[in-house]
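Subject: Interface between my chains keeps coming out wrong

I've been trying for a while to get a sensible model of this assembly. When I model each chain on its own everything looks fine, but I need the whole thing in one frame so I can look at the contacts. Pasting all components below, labels as-is. Any help appreciated, I'm running out of ideas.
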Amino acid sequence: MAQQKLVIIGAGMAAGRLLEHLFKVDPAAYEVTLFNAEPRGTYNRIMLSPVLSGEKSYGEIVTHDDAWYAENKVACRFGERVVDIDRDRKVVIGEKGEVAYDRLVIATGSNPFIIPLPGHDLPGVLAYRDADDTDAMIAACEPGARAVVIGGGLLGLEAAAGLRLRGMDVTVLHLAPTLMERQLDPSAGYLLEKELSTRGIDIRTGVNSKEIFGDGKVEGVRLDDGTEIPASLVVMAVGIRPNVAVGKQAGLDVGRGIKVDARMQTSDPAISSIGECVEFEGNCYGLVAPLFEQAKICAQALTGDTEPAFIHTETATKLKVTGVDLYSAGDFADGEDRDEVVFRDPARGIYKRLVLKDGCLIGAVLYGETSDGAWFFDKIKTGEPIADDERATLIFGQSYAGGTPLDPMAAVAALPDEAEICGCNGVSKGQILTAIDENGLADLEGVRACTKASSSCGTCTGLVESLLAYKLGDAFVAPAKKTVCGCTDLGHDDVRRLILSQELKSIPAVMQELGWKTSCGCAKCRPALNYYLLAAWPGEYTDDGQSRFINERVHANIQKDGTYSVVPRAWGGVTSADELRAIADVVDKFKIPTVKYTGGQRIDMLGVKKEDLPAVWADLNAAGMVSGHAYGKSLRTVKTCVGSDWCRVGTQDSTGLGIKLEKLMWGSWTPHKVKLAVSGCPRNCAEATCKDIGVVCVDSGYEIHFAGAAGMEVRATDLLTKVTTEDEAIEMCTAILQLYRERGFYLERIYKWSARVGIDKVREQIVEDAENRAALVERFRYSQQFSQSDPWAERATGGTDAHEFQPLELAK
Amino acid sequence: MTTETWIDLCGLADIPLRGARRVKLDEDEIAIFRTASNTIYAINNRCPHKGGPLSEGIVHDTGVTCPLHALIIDLETGQARGADTGCVRTYPVEVRENQRVFLKASAG
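Reply #2:
Try treating it as a single job with all components included. I did that and got this:
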């Protein structure tokens, strides 16, 4: 019988593996012709990154050379494109002529996806896919020259690291807020960004490229916020698409990829397809392991063994940047039916997260220490149930598997005296025990004061408490601490202190460095962290809208039916005919059902549809009104009486002082809402003595009150002090507000904060310490320059958060 | 007869990470969520408790906290978490290669 003719289109890694299997099973089965559009045979495409970085040469990554093809009698048609397939005549039509086939394998791989930005076709814009792209990038490298990589996924980061190693200044632009968001959770993405930044790669996440500019060749990239980044090389690495062109033209069944069955057969029984161009049960593949599996099954089918079937399995990802250890596998999204086990070692930059479902491991993300990756991956693939005792030590990996979990007391007892407990301050177990003995310490604060242990990052606090319990026995009672929420063992005060001392400037940074037990927090801790970061790093921290309650995210108050209420600011409770007319017009125009006065002397428009909010704000803005922040943990209102301008018993200009205070303080975010009032005489018509901060004017000056409440609790204010001038009154009020902003716990009103720390402490820092008072005022004024931009105007005409207000429209 | 169709809703990037968009489909409003780990879910946009718009809630892991009374609804199952009870309808969604989000709707 004459030898059958096999034609393969594409000589990528899958085709190379197919030939190896085929020749092993039956070297004489087929006369093989191999087409490849690239002018070369098979090489290890996934090792292009080390070639780019200069750690390997191209020669080292060739897997099939000319001699191998000659030895196996493969007719190579490299550098020749396939123009068409004539399925009736069973011939493949190449650029240089036809080849007949009995069996055909399409292995055309994938094409890089090029975003059609203006300028994407300028010389100097490259994809990163094959050896030619790599050569072109190497040729463009000059030390000190600048490159921009668009895409912070696997390929983009490998390209960036390679270019950096060749001496380029590299900027990575990434649309999502964290790197490699498809393979990594935000915590691991944060660690990766930190590591790459220390290597001198400029990472910009959450940015959108608008155009590539240049005259005749690339000169840079412009972002949609107008920022320009100069570059002589732009690499686009935003993803790949199955290359289905030839299969589609031949009339095969094609979806995202060329559709195949479990034997890799296409809709034409004489034609198979393998590799990245394939779609199997709705899945396309871009990582090498399943492609090799496909190659093996295809080779078996071609030699008559149709028993083996391809089964979709999870794949694992490893980043090939020298020195970055990163591994992810399986499904690591969280969910109620899933448990997660998280291990963080902030000092060593290690993060491990395992996701379990129904008692089985289904996903793993490892950063910094990946040696157990394969072991975890194996457990994911086999789906074997994890026994309870095994689970206790699972995260420590293979070497601890099944070991006895230690009780914390036994664990600290077993430590040698020289074992380091506090890594930050280099304090050993022996030193702590000695300090407890010699100084008669009985609590955590004592150990902190004497040894510094647990006083910096705080992650060894549990260990120190175990040591106290071990040494003192029942005499030590660990303080019952109110934690921020179930995501952490730390209390609000610890979190605030550590954000400052460790200079933590993002939510993922806080969660990583402070050992958060969940991967992305909850509805309790996220708003708190967002506030603490805003208060700690004014001008530096970028507000995270998705960590805010809806009212603060859309700058209006949600009502029971999902509509919103809108309260414009009326400085000191004063309005005008023009403002009232504009409000009346808005009410008519948008058919707003209810208008009423609030307890804080403002006008509230209730029942506004969410879609109408920007237009309502635009009209109010046009009449000079801005957001009243009636929805925020922020300065709400300053209520006033008419004071000495009109009132026959008024002692000072209470209205004027109220307006000054409101103009100074509006826009500031606070732990909870803050309401002020200024009364012009002791008759107290503005009810200043049940406000968070209240001023009562008297003949001789101003009484400064604080810590009142008139809600679930009713509480008269405490008198903080009395001053003689209006400027002093403003200074005192500002200092109280700033001290509360810096020390209050999230959702703790001023009266609760004051009760917790003690009114004397507050008086000490504000009234008695003039220097401290001035510093508080200065910090408040500094912070205000970043917060006094009207959020309504930003959204009404500035385009901020446009997606919030528009429901998705379905295309007809 | 019931017919099922996949509807092209929007691009993946149109939904903020840890956020949601809403879409009207006949009489129902559906909330489309995108979690921190970039998974897409679709559920009916009415909290089983008092009808709160779930699309406006804070998204954490695969749950959303209702903006009205803080029930936590699991996006995968549509069930209220913890001691609360109630359930909302979930809809099949998928993100295709071109980064478009599709929702499976049945009618008839």
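Reply #3:
Confirming on my end. Chain A has 28 helices and 38 strands.
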